[in-house]
Structures are given as C-alpha cells and as structure tokens.
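Ops channel
N.P.: pipeline sanity check, posting one input/output pair.
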C-alpha cells in the first residue's frame, strides 16, 4: 500500500465503522424517525419521539443495546420488509449523504476492498453504503422477518453474529489491512485489523492531500420530510402539524376564490413569499400564436406559480398529475400521453390559442440538478421564453414518487413559509431556434444550460425513467400483487383517482 493516510492507496483492505466515523452522527434516532414517518405516518413518528427521553436515559446508564432494540421495535414492528427496503433506497441516502464525513470518506475510498461495520440493521444502510460509498460488503444486524414479510421489530438471534465472526467469514484466513473507527469500537472489530487509526489522525494527514475524492451524489430521493428529524425538529413538526393542516386549507381555499392576479399581493399575509426576477413578457397576440414558457420542474406548483406572477391563467401541459389535482387546479391543464405525435398536435393546438407552460424535464428533481430536456418543445415554436423556477420550504417536500401525488399541493401549503423564486430570461433569439437551422436537441440542450447557469444547478442526462428506476428499484411500475384481491382492487381505484 502507498501513502494510505493521505488518501492515495489503491490497494489493500479496510474495515470502517459507519456511525461516528463515515457518518458524523453516532445517534441512529433521526434515521429511525424517518423510517417511522415514511412507513407508518405521524402516529408512529410521534410515538417514537415521546420515547426519546427513555432512550437517552438508557444510553446514559450504559444500556445502549437495549436503547437501540427499543428504537428498532417502535420504528418497524409490523412494517412490511419491502416498505423498509423502499425507504432505505429512496429516502435515507439523502440524509446519510448530508452527514458523511468527507475526510473519513477520503481515507475509506483510498483502499481497494472496503467493508462497513454498523450496529444498525443492515437492510437500513446497505443500499446507501454500496451505491454511494462503494463498499463491497456490509456487516450489520439482521431484522427478524415473519413468513408473511413483516418485521417483528427484533433482531435475529444467530450464532457467530458478532462483527468479528462476520469479518472473519468475509476475509477468510486473511486480516483487514486497516480498521477505521471510534476508540470505543476496539473491542468489537478493530482488534482483528492489522492497523488501526481514528478520524483525528486521518483528518490531520489529509491536510496534505491535494484533493478529496467525493462519494457518488444523491440526485434522486423521495420522502416528505425536508430536514433530518432530530428530537427538536421532530417536536416542531408534531406541534406544527395540526396548525399546518388548517393553514393549508385556508391558503388553498383563498387561492381558489380570489382572482389569480391578486395572489402575489395576498401571499405575504398568508405566510408565503414570491420572488420575481426579470421582466415577464406581455400576453402574446392571438394572430401570432402564444409564447411557450419553458420552465424548470421543481414541484407540481410551477405552472400555477408562473400564472400568479403573470397575473393571468396560462394553460400548462402535464404528464402524470392526479385527477384530483386537475380538478382543483386554478389554471387549465392539458394532459399529455407521452406519444410524441399526439403530444405535438396537442401542444400546437394550445399554442394557437395563446400562451402555454411546459416543463420539459418531465418530472421533478429536488436536488440542484436539471434532468435532460425533451426536445419536443423546440420543434413546435420559435417563441420560447425560458423561466428558472426554484422553491424553499421548511418542513415538507411538495413532491413525492411513493405517496399519493394528490397530496403534493397540500403538503406544500402546510409549510410555515413556502417561498417560490421565479426568474424570467429573455426570449430566445431567432438564431438560437430551429428556424435558424439548429436541431431540436441543440435548442433543448442550450435552454437547459442557461437555466442551470441561472440557478447554479448542474446539467445531467438523467430522465424520468432513470428517476423512477432509482426510487422504485425497477422500472417504476406500481405492483399490487402483494395485497389480497379485494384490497388490490381498492388500491387500484385509489391509484387511478389520486395518481
């Protein structure tokens, strides 16, 4: 091995602790709160929160093992294993990534063979550790699962369940070249490693590195909660929820009653905020056809907010919003089919009537990335006005892939102070459109680049299919086969109405 501590070794093996080393936080509580909220909702979330003082007491008197077991039981008992795996795949990686210690990661990534040890359930961390930290193996506790696929809330009791035994099984007759963890972990797995070191040593040596490697970023994630639910944050969420429901109802009701041009003036009195930059174009002359507003896609509310800023109802093309959202929408919506020929005809027909809004990413992305733009819009008109849309919320995300999309606007308005940022760019000059001989793909890529530069985002080639493949672990289709026949039928009806 060469210059291991400086993050330059390309050989050897390392065993690293996850909590307290690769992750700064050693407390599993916020991550189990996420599991509880995303798999079971507010009741289990609140139950685990109210148990927190007991958990802290157990930790303080040296009963950390019992504290962890009690946390696991309350968080996942009775939850389907597939649901736990779905949250571990689609929700937790974002929060894990925010907590990664980059100095520790640089040391860890410098070894060829990498193994992570954790006292948390393996199912909970394996997807993140392998996909984003590039570990080869994960040594963790196994959850007990019934034959019906539900977690009992207890860990499996098996022989040779200690980290040392599992590591010996992985490395056979060899020993790991390096062990990386907290000094308190020595009695568990560091004792079988050839060399041991801890984060302060790694941090000091890494000051001489020219650059730190980066884990694979989290581009797609799901879940409703914006911030990691520490005990204080979780308490604020629980206390806000009843009031938030009332606030959301009032905001939505007023938004449907008053004229849309009045909403920007009323929004500050309801706790919202609209930030507008650039000069919006005037309504297009009917004889020339409408202007096509090409927007980044952050939430379901993008076209509605754009109409509020413009002071007039501008129709929007949609791909997969719920029927209920269409009914409640204050602006006209045109549902597309993803059949290129049919969709092109519909968009042309609407542009002939007036202005139109399109989000060519085809789906939302929460992180500072723009997905690949569909080139269809560039083929249909030369009157293109790019609009950079972004938003900020405190408690709840306004989009979800796993839950009922009909609730997306409601969760957006449940936030104490939702903020939308709208930036109008200049209409594309004729020489930048297809009329000047540009290909539709060149025009789409150009619009994507200028919008990304405006927002400080990064362009990607990811598409809607990539997003749902990551979040669903397959092609993104919905599967009702696990339910009983009558329940499957109920779910199918609900999916039709709400998705």
């Amino acid at each position: 091995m060469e210059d291991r501590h400086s993050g330059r070794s390309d050989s050897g093996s390392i065993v690293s602790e996850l909590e307290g080393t690769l992750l700064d936080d050693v407390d599993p509580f916020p991550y189990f709160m996420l599991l509880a909220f995303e798999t079971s909702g507010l009741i289990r979330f609140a139950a685990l929160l109210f148990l927190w003082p007991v958990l802290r007491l157990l930790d303080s008197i040296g009963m950390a093992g019992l504290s962890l077991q009690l946390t696991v039981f309350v968080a996942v008992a009775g939850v389907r294993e597939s649901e736990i795996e779905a949250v571990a795949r689609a929700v937790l990686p974002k929060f894990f990534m925010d907590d990664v210690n980059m100095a520790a990661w640089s040391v860890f990534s410098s070894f060829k063979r990498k193994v992570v040890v954790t006292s948390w359930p393996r199912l909970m961390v394996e997807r993140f550790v392998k996909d984003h930290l590039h570990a080869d193996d994960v040594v963790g506790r196994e959850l007990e699962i019934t034959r019906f696929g539900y977690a009992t809330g207890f860990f499996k009791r098996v022989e040779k369940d200690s980290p040392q035994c599992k590591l010996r099984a992985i490395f056979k007759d060899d020993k790991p070249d390096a062990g990386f963890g907290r000094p308190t972990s020595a009695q568990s797995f560091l004792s079988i490693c050839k060399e041991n070191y801890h984060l302060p040593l790694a941090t000091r040596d890494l000051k001489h590195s020219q650059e730190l490697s980066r884990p694979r970023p989290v581009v797609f994630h799901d879940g409703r909660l914006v911030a990691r639910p520490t005990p204080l944050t979780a308490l604020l969420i629980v206390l806000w929820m009843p009031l938030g429901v009332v606030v959301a109802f009032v905001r939505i009701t007023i938004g449907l009653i008053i004229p849309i041009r009045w909403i920007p003036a009323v929004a500050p009195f309801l706790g919202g905020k609209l930030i507008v930059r650039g000069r919006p174009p005037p309504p297009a002359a009917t004889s020339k056809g409408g202007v096509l507003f090409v927007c980044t896609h952050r939430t379901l509310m993008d076209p509605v907010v754009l109409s509020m800023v413009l002071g007039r109802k501008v129709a929007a093309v949609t791909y997969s919003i719920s029927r209920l959202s269409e009914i409640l929408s204050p602006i006209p919506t045109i549902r597309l089919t993803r059949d290129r020929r049919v969709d092109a005809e519909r968009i042309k027909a609407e542009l002939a009537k007036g202005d139109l809004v399109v989000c060519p990413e085809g789906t939302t992305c929460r992180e500072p990335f723009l997905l690949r733009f569909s080139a269809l819009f560039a083929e249909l008109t030369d009157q293109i006005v790019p609009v950079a849309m972004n938003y900020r919320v405190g408690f709840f995300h306004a989009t979800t892939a796993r839950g009922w999309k009909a609730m997306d606007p409601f969760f957006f308005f449940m936030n104490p102070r939702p903020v939308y940022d709208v930036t109008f760019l200049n209409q594309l000059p004729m020489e930048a459109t297809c009329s000047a001989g540009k290909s539709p793909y060149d025009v789409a890529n150009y619009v994507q680049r200028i919008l990304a530069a405006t927002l400080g985002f990064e362009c990607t080639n990811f598409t809607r299919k990539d997003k749902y493949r990551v979040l669903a672990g397959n092609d993104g289709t919905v599967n009702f086969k696990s339910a009983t026949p009558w329940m499957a039928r109920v779910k199918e009806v609900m999916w039709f109405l709400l998705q």
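N.P.: looks fine end to end. Residues 4-206 form a domain with the Rossmann fold fold (CATH 3.40.50).
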